[in-house]
UniProtKB/TrEMBL annotation:
GO CC, one annotated term: Ski complex
Keyword Hydrolase: yes
PANTHER family found in the cross-reference section: ATP-DEPENDENT RNA AND DNA HELICASE, ATP-DEPENDENT RNA HELICASE SUPV3L1, MITOCHONDRIAL-RELATED
Record's protein name: Helicase ATP-binding domain-containing protein
Alphabetical UniProt keywords: ATP-binding, Coiled coil, Helicase, Hydrolase, Nucleotide-binding
Helicase C-terminal domain ranges (all copies): 333-517
């Protein structure tokens, strides 16, 4: 009874808040239009809500009112949609238009319902691959691909022309999808093609490099301000579900793994006695099949050291059934919950597996039955008959295999507290408003075409972030489940790995190039017939190339190069500065300071000796040059030809690299016999060898003979 009263109180409070907001929006819009004043103050927008606005929300709204584009990076479920909602109020009040884009049709449908509730049916439209409702509305909600395709025809045009007529603001929700391998290019293209006079509001989950995203948008689009927040409105607690217990995943400080979860030891954990509602409404006690004398096989008095093979087997034995984890949630008052399973078939199978578990009270079950009857009368073809039994017990599935109407119905029941557990694929993590007390992640890896892929920290935090209902829960619970391949160690590795940066996935496809070259549609009216015809004004290859070169990847890459060059210049300046300081006097002072008198005297003696050796070497070099010149003079006097004896030879090596070497011309081959050639070559070799003995060993000479 207390739980039912709390649920009804929460629903009534939410309904009153929505009614208040809707009334305040209508009042503000009417006042602005009546007085014809487009200037809207922040306090007017803040007055729409019956609760205080967070700091990051205030900063983002103020940046928008200053005319800047805004990038907002904040945790999941922190209230980023409020910023877009406030921008929509200001835009509608000014008589202009706003486009709101989402990555999913389900999210677009939900935003469509929410904005209609706030702004009225006539002010909100929807444009997806499945629906086209009120396309000329002031607030038009669509998938990002729809907007990108619209922008193909408007690149280079102002917002007053083409498909973006009277559009002042574009909201890109879930903009962190820019890193998605298959779809990320859509978000980059949308930013690149968007007219510069349109304000962008980019809403992102927390990522490692929001500053780079804001910098890129500022460079290619216009003035952009960054607003970040790392604070969750509802704190998040991590848990780990094993077969016989639900334990904290982290220690008290949240800095490392809970010692009790170490798989190298068997902990003193006993089988729980969980109470559960079943179909007949009786409470039953779930006991372990191996239980004897109320003792679990793991109920031992001391820790036992295990081998690696035993740890592997123990990990397998610790994998809980869905019923067992659900029992743990029930015992700890952690429902309602979103349970993430990475396949549609897995979600449906989970619902079927626990559909005998009764999670609803009688009054709640009656309310669900009444709502289901109404839905069936209105949309008879949209009912999922194989899911009705589970729904009447408080369990449902939510994935792309369900019809949009059925998913909307499940979302509404979950928001009202009439569905206690929703088994969903990871798409539900993408901003769909289904606040839960607990988020359960069934596995740390998901199956892809190439095998199994471990979740990234961003994916994990996105799903875990659905836990914790603002204004209802004091803490949100994220439960990770033991699997055959992943234990608490792997979970902690992902959690402590840190957030990943946004990475460009921009790709130049054939379709993109053709659309860019085709250009925008231009209509003209013929004078004689009065017919209106449309044709495309094509773009040049150079214009298309410039657009493509504005990708986020190019910006980050160029920034990296600039930063690297700046760092190199700084290092070179430091080297020059140090070189100017390290003089002979500096070294002498340093030696006198650091060395003893005996050591310093010995070093001074060696330095003087080195100077004398260098002096002798220089004198030997000069003597060698004189002797070489005398020897060459003797050789040249024997030549009777009139050719100059000095020349340069050029050749290519095996790598086709050009080389130039100095040479002495002796004569043509026809003027020498074999004996004379051998004699001349031998004299030159002896001369060079004699020269080598007179110079330092670190100088290397080479001699060549060429017959012409």
């Amino acid at each position: 009874v207390a739980a039912e009263d709390s649920r009804q109180e929460t629903a009534e409070r939410r309904q009153r808040s929505e009614q208040y907001k809707s009334q305040q929006v209508a009042k503000l819009v009417a006042e602005v239009r009546e007085f014809g004043d487009d200037i809207i103050d922040y306090n007017e927008l803040a007055g729409i809500y019956d609760f205080p606005i967070d700091k990051f929300q205030r900063l983002a709204i103020q940046a928008f009112l200053r005319g800047s584009s805004v990038v907002v990076s904040a945790p999941t479920s922190s209230g980023k949609t409020l910023i877009a909602e406030a921008a929509a109020v200001a835009t509608v009040a000014r008589g202009r238009r706003l486009f709101y884009t989402t990555p999913l049709k389900a999210l677009s449908n939900q935003k469509f319902r929410e904005f209609r509730s706030t702004f009225g049916d006539h002010n909100v439209g929807l444009l997806t691959g499945d629906s086209a409702i009120n396309k000329d509305a002031q607030i038009l909600i669509m998938t990002t691909e729809i907007l990108r395709n619209m922008l193909y025809q408007s690149v280079g045009m102002s917002a007053s022309d083409g498909r973006l007529f009277e559009v002042d603001v574009i909201v890109l929700d879930e903009v962190h999808y820019l890193s998605d391998i298959s779809r990320g290019t859509v978000w980059e293209e949308t930013v690149i093609y968007c007219p510069k006079e349109v304000q962008l509001i980019c809403l992102s989950a927390t990522v490692a490099n929001p500053d780079e995203l804001a910098g890129w948008i500022g460079q290619i689009h216009g003035k952009t301000e960054l607003v970040t927040s790392s604070k969750r409105p509802v704190p998040l607690t991590w848990h780990f579900s094993k077969k016989f217990a639900l334990l904290p995943l982290l220690d008290g400080k949240g800095k490392k793994m809970n010692r009790k979860l170490r798989m190298s030891h068997v902990q003193n954990i006993s089988s729980p006695k969980s109470e559960f509602y079943y179909v007949k409404g009786k409470r039953k006690v779930r006991t372990n099949k191996n239980e004897q004398g109320n003792r679990s096989p793991l109920d031992i008095s001391k820790q036992v050291q295990l081998s690696k093979h035993e740890v592997t087997n123990m990990r397998r034995s610790q994998v809980p059934l869905i019923r067992e984890t659900l029992s743990q949630l029930w015992e700890n008052d952690m429902l309602p919950a979103i349970w993430f399973i990475f396949s549609r078939r897995g979600c449906d199978a989970a619902v079927e597996y626990i559909e005998d578990c009764r999670l609803l009270h009688d009054c709640e079950a009656s309310e669900v039955e009444l709502e289901l009857r109404r839905f069936r009368m209105q949309y008879p073809d949209a009912v999922r008959e194989n899911a009705v039994k589970g729904l009447l017990r408080g369990v449902a599935a939510h994935h792309a295999g369900c019809l949009p109407l059925w998913k909307s119905f499940i979302e509404e029941l979950f928001q009202r507290g009439l569905v206690k557990v929703v088994f969903a694929t990871e798409t539900l993590a993408a901003g769909i408003n289904m606040p839960a007390r607990t988020a359960v992640i069934s596995s740390l890896s998901k199956r892809i075409d190439a095998g199994r892929q471990l979740l990234t920290p961003n994916n994990l935090f996105q799903m875990a972030g659905r836990a914790g209902r603002r204004g209802i829960d004091t803490v949100g619970h994220s439960v990770l489940v033991q699997t055959t391949n992943e234990g608490p160690e792997e979970c902690c590795d992902v959690i402590f790995a840190g957030l990943e940066p946004l990475v460009s996935q921009f790709t130049a496809s054939y379709g993109m190039v053709l659309n860019l070259l085709a250009g925008s549609k231009v209509t003209h009216k013929q004078k004689e017939s009065g017919d209106v015809k449309a044709k495309r004004s094509g773009r040049t290859l150079e214009e298309a190339r410039k657009l493509v070169e504005q990708s986020f990847g190019n910006y980050v890459g160029s920034n990296v190069m600039v930063a690297a060059k700046e760092e190199l210049e700084r290092i070179q300046k430091d080297i020059q500065h140090l070189s100017s300081e390290i003089t002979d006097e500096f070294i002498d002072r340093k030696c006198r300071k650091e060395l003893s008198e005996e050591d310093y005297a010995e070093i001074s003696l060696l330095q003087n000796k080195l100077k004398e050796e260098k002096k002798i070497r220089n004198e030997l070099k000069k003597r060698m040059e004189l002797e070489r010149m005398a020897a060459w003079k003797t050789q040249l006097e024997e030549f009777e030809s009139g050719h100059l004896p000095f020349m340069c030879l050029q050749y290519k090596d095996k790598d086709s690299v050009h080389h130039t070497i100095p040479a002495v011309f002796i004569g043509s081959l026809s003027s020498f016999d074999d004996q004379k050639i051998a004699s001349m070559v031998w004299k030159m070799i002896l001369l060079v060898q004699a020269s080598r003995k007179l110079i330092a060993r670190d100088n290397i000479f080479a001699h060549h003979t060429m017959l012409l």
